[in-house]
Design brief:
Radius of gyration: 22 Å
Helix content: 10-25%
Distance between the termini: 35 Å
Structural class: mainly beta
Number of strands: 25
Number of helices: 6
Length: 376
């Protein structure tokens, strides 16, 4: 089981407890249809959409080794078929450390799955099964998403779709581009910077399943849930299936483990009034360095604790998440221009400074490439 808690925006973020665990990716797009803004009208369409998408949604069962001899832990999660050759998208935390991964299809047939590619940082994995007559999902237009639109969460919540019949709930989009930093300190912590927040019921076991728009198209990967600390209000979070995610899925399906840029700093949670006064700040948006990792790119560029970063490559940095998101989406070897403020400890003079940092890598693993890159 994978459980993680993080308080974000007054909510307790809980990573869904799940499990789990080519040819060219046949990305398909549906023709534009007039949107349904009324949930009552959407409910009528709901019954038509589910049977069409269900054959592409899979239930995942994972066995993980334990310290006890001949004993395993079992957990369940979700996934969806991205290509008819048998490639399946899920969350990496669903199948992490799995000894065996079983995938059950809508027709109740079950197959062992192979892990083809993974990205721990982005929490996405690609599995592959050998099965005939598979139906892949259709991808939706992310540019058309907006708060208030109706969506469907599909998957295997609490293992209730173990017979291959996915469970579906629906609600509305509350927010786009939600950032969740739910990882642990260090180079491998997970960071989500493009989440779709919805009020559709999402529970442990839904992770890795598709978030569907009102046309039956995939727009996200169900990944996390949140529950109010003093309320029963619950929200679900899905990784947006945007251009970057599609590119990542393509790389993972080739067996490439993508590399993410690493700068080597920890940032203060906030800037207090005293530091703001010392740096003579009017606009306090930015990222304050609390710690610089020894021998890291930041250390080699002579960044120091107390430096206040305002721009990266000319892009305004409003907060820590802005900085993390920008660096995380750069590749190792990229040289980044950093503009920051520094106070001289002796003269107390505040200096506007610029330096260049060549990013390091979080990981570097490549495997065979089975197929051709699709058009975006």
């Amino acid at each position: 089981m994978y459980n993680m808690k993080q308080k974000v925006n007054n909510f307790l973020i809980v990573m869904l407890a799940l499990t789990a665990m080519g040819a060219s990716l046949a990305y398909k797009f549906m023709p534009n249809v007039a949107p349904v803004d009324d949930l009552n009208l959407f409910e009528a369409r709901f019954a038509e959409i589910i049977p069409k998408v269900s054959p592409s949604v899979v239930a995942i069962k994972v066995e993980k080794p334990t310290e006890m001899v001949n004993m395993t832990d079992q957990s369940s999660g979700s996934g969806f078929i991205i290509d008819s050759e048998g490639f399946i998208v899920t969350n990496y935390h669903v199948i992490e450390d799995a000894a065996n991964i079983r995938v059950t299809l809508n027709n109740k047939e079950t197959y062992f799955a192979q892990l083809i590619g993974k990205d721990d940082r982005k929490d996405i994995a690609i599995l592959k099964i050998q099965a005939p007559d598979l139906q892949s999902v259709t991808l939706g237009d992310i540019d058309e998403l907006a708060p208030g639109q109706a969506v469907i969460v599909m998957g295997n919540p609490l293992g209730l779709a173990a017979d291959g019949k996915p469970v579906s709930t629906f609600g509305r989009i509350n927010k786009l581009n939600q950032i969740l930093d739910t990882g642990t300190p260090g180079n491998t912590k997970r960071f989500y910077d493009n989440m779709i927040q919805t009020d559709a019921i999402t529970v442990p076991g839904n992770s890795g399943g598709p978030l569907i728009n009102q046309f039956g198209q995939v727009i996200g990967i169900n990944t996390a849930m949140a529950q109010g600390v003093k309320t029963n209000q619950q929200f679900g979070f899905a990784i947006t299936f945007d251009t970057d995610t599609r590119e990542l899925v393509w790389e993972l399906a080739q067996g490439i483990e993508p590399e993410h840029g690493f700068m080597g700093i920890s940032m203060a949670e906030s800037i207090d009034p005293l530091i703001s006064q010392q740096l003579k700040l009017k606009d306090i948006s930015g990222a304050l360095i609390a710690y610089v990792v020894e021998d890291s790119p930041a250390a080699k560029a002579q960044l120091k604790m107390g430096d206040f970063i305002q721009y990266l490559d000319g892009k305004k940095i409003h907060d820590n998440n802005d900085l993390s998101s920008y660096i995380d989406n750069q590749r190792p070897g990229k040289t980044v221009t950093v503009e920051f403020l520094r106070q001289n400890p002796y003269t107390l003079e505040v200096q506007n400074m610029t330096t260049k940092i060549t990013l390091a890598s979080r990981q570097n693993l490549q495997m065979p490439k089975p197929f051709t890159k699709p058009n975006k």
